[in-house]
Amino acid sequence: MKLYGKTALVTGACSGIGEAIAKRLSEEGAYVVIGDIDEVEGKRVAEDINAGRESAAEFTSVDVTKQADMKRVVERAAEKFGTLDTL
Known about the structure:
- About 45% of the residues lie in helices and about 20% in strands.
- The protein is built from three helices and three strands, in the order E-H-E-H-E-H.
- Helix 1 links the parallel strand 1 (about 5-10) and strand 2.
- The two termini are about 20 Å apart.
């Protein structure tokens, strides 16, 4: 649990490498914000993570090409988990 109490934002976390990174960060104790444009898959990944650790992950829709979206997702991470330690 190297990352216990830390918060990580992972974009592109709905599949592949991004999903694997999000799940691994959670396994290491981090709270994880799943950021992606695919709401269905994003919620699925958050549910998968939360099955192992209740309230350890949350999905937030984000388009990384839009500055306003990125600002919103960072603010949401801090609001939900108190801080944002890594992207």
